[in-house]
Write a structure and sequence with these properties.
Layout (H helix, E strand, L loop, with lengths): L12 E4 L6 H15 L5 E6 L5 H14 L3 E7 L2 H11 L3 E4 L8 E8 L3 E2 L6 H10 L11 E3 L3 H11 L8 E6 L5 H8 L5 E6 L21 H10 L3 E5 L6 E4 L5 E2 L1 H15 L4 E5 L5 H8 L3 E5 L3 H11 L3 E3 L5 E3 L5 E2 L1 H13 L5 H6 L5 E2 L3 E4 L3 H13 L5 E3 L4 E4 L5 E6 L5 E8 L2 H15 L2
Helix pairs in contact: 1-2, 1-4, 8-9, 8-11
GO biological process, one term: carbohydrate metabolic process
Keywords: Isomerase, Magnesium, Metal-binding, Phosphoprotein
Pfam families: PGM_PMM_I, PGM_PMM_II, PGM_PMM_III, PGM_PMM_IV
Amino acid sequence: MPDLSGIVKAYDIRGVVGEQLDAALVRDLGSAFALLIKPESDSVVIGHDMRDSSPELAAAFADGVTSQGLDVVSIGLASTDQLYFASGSLNLPGAMFTASHNPAKYNGIKLCRSGAAPVGQDSGLAEIRDTVEQGVPAFEGQRGSVTEKDVLADYAAYLRKLVDLSGSRPLKVVVDAGNGMGGYTVPTVFAGLPIEVVPMYFELDGNFPNHEANPLDPKNIVDLQAKVREEGADAGLAFDGDADRCFVVDERGEPVSPSAITALVAVRELEKEPGGTIIHNLITSKGVPEIVAEHGGKPVRTRVGHSFIKAEMAKTGAIFGGEHSAHYYFRDFWRADTGMLAALHVLAALGEQAGPLSELTAEYSRYAASGEINSTVDDQVARMMAVKDAFGARDGVEIDELDGLTVQLPGGGWFNLRPSNTEPLLRLNVEAADAEAVRALTEDVLAIVRG
């Protein structure tokens, strides 16, 4: 019996190609997924990114699905949010082959039910894992068929319908696709808009020859920052490998925090639906719920992770949700995450007024933050308890454990300390009134974590 515990993660399947993941295993995963969704659908839509291994693995998965009598709609090359669009618009379960920002040797599968509803450990992944480990039962009926469908133009038209840029002033925008799927989707999405795109690394290359396709790591946006300054551009956008996340830099080449983008987009969505609910995870800036409330919205705080965000959006009818990791979720996009739609909102807001992006986003950036700081530890629980005990003994401190350890200090500063699900790491995020207060609090916490 195969052991899939190393590759079946909380939200997806991911592993090293040739070692943990190969065509034979992926075929079984396709069969198991078909068995899972047979009661709700007779077809599955499949897309894949530009990694060298993706076409073969996507074809193997399709073979597994059709071996169980279900049909496959193949959309070929796609961003992850393009696959979500296909799942939503066609009302079909979906499979996206990508390892997002992971190095070239990795690949993986993001799965969803009809309408882009997430499939995680508790909503199907564990069942798929068990089915494969125990041996997928053969289907004696007729095989399904595979048809091809190009949805890129429809995806682009749908996004442009949601954000009106017709009244925008002309903008010059540098886009770093990181040799990922943004290089495939951006030209079609931005076609006809009053935006001059300066492309960087648009060539599809799953070996990522220029830099890792992970824009949250500061070293991966250095080229973008320099190009924005060199071009005198109005803004810069950086997409991750599967182009479902988008990171923004302003006209000075300075990073704009995903929390500020969350607040900006939230305000725009609240203009369309006053009083609406906005989801934010507990690591986003406390400025997000403040701004949402000031604009008449209802902020709701959740754990980190797309399954929690999407579940809370379904429960509350939320119109929008944002995470510190530059994932942005829209009710109008089947509650799925799409960095492209968030980018269009930012550019629309910028184009509607005459000032630079730095002035616009300053309204939504109220506090200083550390960014995520990782510490390798021998015992995650013991180190977290040491932090809890140390800060819990101080006057006026409030502690909650919704997701890891969140500690609110009397002066307004706060931090969250969370264990990694996959590595012996503790992840620290700190926010306070200014950079000096952030530095002092960070050093205070790390002295205990690493002590």
